Structures are given as structure tokens and as C-alpha cells.
Amino acid sequence: MTNAKVQSKLRIRPEHRQRIYSVFDVATACRRIYNLITMRSTSCLILLALLLATHGSSSIPISAEQPSSTPQLPGVLTDIDGRPVYMQKLATEHRLVVVTLKATWCSVCTQQLIRLRDRNAKFQACGIRFVIVSPGPLRELKSVAERTRLPYPFVEDVDLDLARSLGLVLAEDQIVPALLLINSERRVSWMQRGRNPAYFGDTALLQHLDCATVRTATTCPHPSQQCLVSATSTE
User: Fold this and answer.
1) Which CATH architecture has domain 63-208?
2) What global pTM score does this model have?
3) d(Cα 125, Cα 215) in Å, to the nearest integer?
4) So where are the chain's domains?
5) Which among 189, 194, 231, 186 is positioned nearest to 208, based on CA atoms?
6) Distance between CA atoms of 193 and 216, rounded to whole angstroms?
């Protein structure tokens, strides 16, 4: 109700009018302040939700590239259960992809592993096999493997020696999250760096390998053969 309407409804003595105006001015100011605070609070809540959603995600710019030269990976690694991982054999017989995790606490990295697990049939049909490399501690990495149930070797990169050789050390105990395609010489032939809740990179991998139309392992025993199956990939 406006000041004029109040005066038309009530008989207000002149000496009290200014006091009424002041009350209305204060009420209007309070309402505006409340609306401003509410809007800012909503904005803060939205920002907080986005920050929580991206917890553990990479701040590394998303990129996909073919490195000019990279060091040769070891022929054999050791997984979290002490078993040998024969990298040369995997790289020769399959399309070997190394998945690096930022850290064992990285929630987006865990989502990536679950995503790979759920799409594993497509990757296997394309001849892809994974090896997951992550910083420790070993017990926490074992927990990640148990929770995600991705049926591939998990390797602890002790002292980040492997990540350092590839130029992927992000911090003292963190690795740049990436997908690394390893050729038969155990060198990185293609790399997708960066990971966030909206982009995981495995679709870029499938597209790079021309696997939007999947090759099957039964009819294509060698990765270089072209076999078409009606299946498409979406991010």
C-alpha cells in the first residue's frame, strides 16, 4: 500500500505524516535488502553446488594431441597385488590405453573408472585394454579398485616416476589425469589430457581410433583390421 493510499484511507494529522513516510521508506528499504540478500544467497548456493560437483576434477585445460616424442614405457609393471603387468604384450596384441588418476581421492577420476567399466564391452570390441596408473597410498588405491570394479590392472606410481618420465606430474602427490594410447614400441602415440564432470575423454579416444563404429575382437583379431558393427558412441 502506498503513502497516498494510506492518507486516503485514514485521517492523518499533518505532524504525523512525515513519521508515516519514514516507516514506509524503512519498510521499502528492508524489502529491497531482503531481496538482495536472498538473490545473493541463492547465487552462493549455486556456486557452492558447482564447486562440490567439481571436487577432485582437473583444472588442466582439456586437450587431445599426438606427442612428437615420448620416452619408452617399461616392458613390465607391477600391479597393486604384486602381479606383473606385461606392457609389451598388451601393446602388441591390443590397443593399450593407460589411464592416469589425479589421486586416490579424486571423485571425478572414480567416475571415469566407473564409466569405463560400464562401457567396457564397447572398448573391448574395439580392441582396447586399459592399465590404470595412480599415486598411492597403496591401500587407498586398492579401495578405489574394489569400489569401481574395473577389470584391469591398477598400478601404483611410486614416487611418481612413471608420471615424471611422461611430464605428467601435477603436484608432489598428484598426476595429470589423462588417457594415453600406447603403441607397439611402448610410446605414447596419442594423449587426451584433463578431466571434469562434463568431459571424460573416452569418446575422443573412440573417435581417434575410428571406433564410433566398433570393431569386434572375434572377427578382427588384429587392431589394424576394419570390421564394422552398428554401434555409436556418445559422451
Assistant:
1) 3-Layer(aba) Sandwich (3.40)
2) 0.68
3) 6
4) 3-53, 63-208
5) 189
6) 27
User: pLDDT tens, 131-152?
Assistant: 999 999 999 999 999 999 999 9
Q: What's the CA gap between 6 and 199, in Å, rounded?
A: 59
For 65-119, how does the pLDDT look when each residue is reduced to its tens digit (9 = 90+)? 766 678 999 999 999 999 999 999 999 999 999 999 999 999 999 999 999 999 9
Distances (CA, A) of 81 to 17, 50, 69, 73: 84, 37, 32, 20
Cell numbers linked to 116:
569405463
Q: How far apart are the first and last CA of the chain?
A: 55
Rounded CA-CA distance 85/75 in Å is: 8
Cβ(56)–Cβ(107) below 8 Å:
yes
Nearest residue to 116 via CA among 137, 95, 131: 131
